[in-house]
Specification:
By secondary structure, the protein is an alpha+beta fold. The protein has a single domain (5-60), classed as 3-Layer(bab) Sandwich (Archease, Possible Chaperone, Chain: A, domain 1). Helices cover 25% and strands 47% of the residues. It is built from two helices and three strands; from the N terminus they run βααββ. The two termini are 24 Å apart.
């Protein structure tokens, strides 16, 4: 898999986790030249915090 970059979205706050999908959608709309080639979803937690991370691996598509 070839990629040009990685964008990581990560949050521990409940409100931010609830809005993570909208945050990612907005980033994708703002970067139409990025084609997602892979993704990794990671969740970790301890006694107090729950962290959700979504890593998007992308290729930059040249604009004509």
């Amino acid at each position: 898999m070839k990629f040009d970059g990685v964008k990581i979205f990560s949050t521990t706050k409940v409100k931010d986790r609830q809005l993570l999908g909208e945050t990612i959608t907005q980033w994708l709309q703002e970067h139409p030249d990025c084609e997602i080639v892979d993704k990794v979803v990671t969740q970790s937690s301890d006694k107090e915090f729950h962290c959700l991370s979504i890593s998007l691996f992308y290729r930059v598509i040249p604009q004509d």
